[in-house]
Amino acid sequence: MPQLDSRLSEVVNENIDSVAPSGIRAFDQKISSIPGIVKLTIGEPDFDVPEHVKQAAIKSIEENKSHYSAQKGIPELRSGIANYLKKRTGVDYDPESEIIVTVGATEAIFSALTSMLNPGDKVIVPTPAFALYFPIIKVAGAELITIDTSDDGFVLTPEKLQAALDENGDSVKAIILNYPTNPTGVEYSKEQLQALADIISQHQMFVLADEIYCELTYGVKHYSIASMLPGQTILVNGLSKSHAMTGYRVGYIAAPKDFVTEASKMHAFVVTAPSNPAQYAAAEALNNGLDDAIPMRQAYEKRRDYIADRLEKMGMAIAMPQGAFYIFAKIPDTIDETSVEFATTLAREAKVGVTPGSAFGPGGEGYVRLSYAASDEDIQLAMNRMSEYLLSVAE
């Protein structure tokens, strides 16, 4: 097995070298070898891809649609995205010039951020937040500005946003808003978004709106900030959560033409073009399967209610999720452990895998994230084990 020449050991991108691996994935890998463990760690839908969507992928292969697609995506999918967004947000996006099909929402986030950021720029991220944002900002040479929302019901307030902008001035290039939010499941109301939009509109900055969970809300309507700030919003979404298509890796960027022109360059440099079978499947999902998420959403809501009830009986306070498929639970005050220590102990002693809250930035310490994108049987078993463990340590 080859070993790197010692003269090259320090020849790496300094920004990459200073970035730690994903705390979510690293912890999941750390506990995965524990025999009999039930994991509620990864946001991986346990449902199958709808049959008509799978058949569209198969058909594309049988019809030999195997050549490079247009770099921004096949026309059928871009039109489907535009129609979907018109229906859901009220914003008209031109399929040809204002939409990029990406390899998952992850690539959409990477291509968008690296296209807009320069060294010295600052990016505001309300935390706790999906940890992927942090290293991409770092790799782009920009500075991360976090706003801890844990004292405000995990919602960014206009007052805290204004204070951050006053403190950092014109160096703020963007704010990332992810809602429904990973890891808390909190959704923003129309009034909350409008209050933030009123402030953002006064500044020369982008909004990166990560709305990947927008089809999974419970009893509330999802509003896109793109409808309020269409000229400043870079909208990111995808099919991974709504149609259980995580392995197909289909996401997209929707934004004004001038930005898409630049971001499509980075997209092309990184991936050339998305996979054809995945794109034809996604086109089918958006054009003929907008109701596919309904039974999944109903199942998630029942699981949410079950877990919330069990956790509260265990003495673990939560912010009731209004979307996504996560619950962010506070570690009982009687347990004197960090979130990593508690999650590690829970994995070893109770054989239940949860994600330490510290993986999600400021405001996350003292909490753990549980994903209910798991089977009912696994969830029930995990709750029983957690309850027994917490009762045992309380004795």
UniProtKB/TrEMBL annotation:
Cofactor field: pyridoxal 5'-phosphate
CDD domains per UniProt: AAT_like
GO MF annotation list: pyridoxal phosphate binding; transaminase activity
Domain Aminotransferase class I/classII large residue range list: 37-384
Record-linked SUPFAM superfamilies: PLP-dependent transferases
GO terms of biological process kind: amino acid metabolic process
Domain of life from the UniProt record: Bacteria
EC number(s) per entry: 2.6.1.-
Enzyme class at the top of the EC tree: transferase
InterPro entries given in the database record: Aminotransferase_I/II_large (IPR004839), AspAT/PAT-like (IPR050596), NHTrfase_class1_PyrdxlP-BS (IPR004838), PyrdxlP-dep_Trfase (IPR015424), PyrdxlP-dep_Trfase_major (IPR015421), PyrdxlP-dep_Trfase_small (IPR015422)
Keywords: Aminotransferase, Pyridoxal phosphate, Transferase
Similarity comment: family membership: Belongs to the class-I pyridoxal-phosphate-dependent aminotransferase family.
Protein's name according to its UniProt entry: Aminotransferase
Organism this protein belongs to: Lentilactobacillus diolivorans DSM 14421
